[in-house]
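question for whoever is on the cluster today: can someone run the full assembly for these? two chains, 449 residues total. i dont have access anymore since they changed the login thing
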Amino acid sequence: MRELGLTIDKIIAGDVRTASRVISFAENEDARAAHILKALFAHTGRAKVIGITGAPGSGKSTLTDKLAKEMRRRDKKVGIVAVDPTSPFTGGAILGDRIRMSSLATDPGVFIRSMGTRGQLGGLAKNTMSAVRILDAFGCDYIFIETVGVGQSEVDIIKLADLVLIVNVPGLGDDIQAIKAGLMEIGDIMVVNKADKEGADRLVIELETMLDFRGEQEGLRPPVLRTIAQDGEGVPTLCDQIDIHFEHNQKIGLLEKRRRRNLRLEVENLLLDRFTRRMRQVITAADEMDNLTESLYNRETDPYTVAETLGESMKLP
Amino acid sequence: MSDRTIRVLIAKPGLDGHDRGAKVIARALRDAGMEVIYTGLRQTPEQIVAAAVQEDVDVLGMSILSGAHNTLFPKVTALLKEQGVDDVLVFGGGVIPDEDIPFLKGHGIEAIFTPGTSTEDVIAYIQNNLKR
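^ ran it for u. tokens below:
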């Protein structure tokens, strides 16, 4: 118990090694993580959490690097959680987001952590929230979560972030892409990166048109901002907009509403996780699973009945 | 060792623009089920050590083809020591003459892999020599 108190104190005091080790515990679902995160929770909720999402190669890492630099210029402490995909076959991963952030590495006011998705769908790693909490307690004013390069429906970032930036680039598709459901609906701020490339003007118009039809929504109309992340162009304006959104959302109660919703979703997800683990136990313990599969294949029974029977053994309604 | 995922930092210290070898190793370790964080080219020892600490890696592999290994590798291990990091397995690779290897091993670079090493050897070495 004394050791737990010490760990908490060290994280709050900004000890990098302790914070990074505890993130590992969380990633590995080590039993120590749960104790620490429970005790840490009371010390969190101060950081502004910003999700950065968009297609692979749209410039998320470069933009995150430049955003962090701008926030450092404004004397803010910055945390970055950068997620890259884990191989579904080997469990291995190449986490390459740091490549674009190497000049931030030695800044003591920046903490960068790379995470593999480890089987989680939705664009994030399973324990991204834990990493964010630890960086929050660690004293970061802003925490940027960079998702994996996403397609159209990886929208889990809204369950974690206070504010979501969608990074768009010219040349990826026509205006039908902009009116599809999913990713494009979740942005608080639309970034048109690589704005010096052909098609940027058109993309801006398409996004604005999409937003015209977005209907009644809480909060500010998402601005469409041009950036050239590589050169840092447009980044100070983007940082200003982030702050404007936070201020506004706080004033109208939207920030609080989102945070309440997200905490509730988090509990649901934790429960779901427990349930999934229990289900795996039941399925692996069921000696008859092989026989059942055989009967299913031979059409002697059906998936619905099998699920019902197994569900009953787990006391599900 | 438990079945937790092994985290490896692959780094390119110094002014050396060739990272084919580093990328081949990174890919091979990925395929062996490890999480590989790649720093990109031209990193200072300070950047490498900061990344190793923030990423809480089990293994640090550095690749050098420029000939600066006798300066840069020991600088990295000295900085790690300074930070109190003693549970990271450090290895090096690249064009490194045999006669330099004892010196490097004396400075905490626990293995040196020279051209011609099979990726299986590197994987096995990591799996068998983790420090935590």
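summary bc i know u wont read the tokens: The mean pLDDT of chain A is 91. The first strand of chain A starts at residue 48 and ends at 54.
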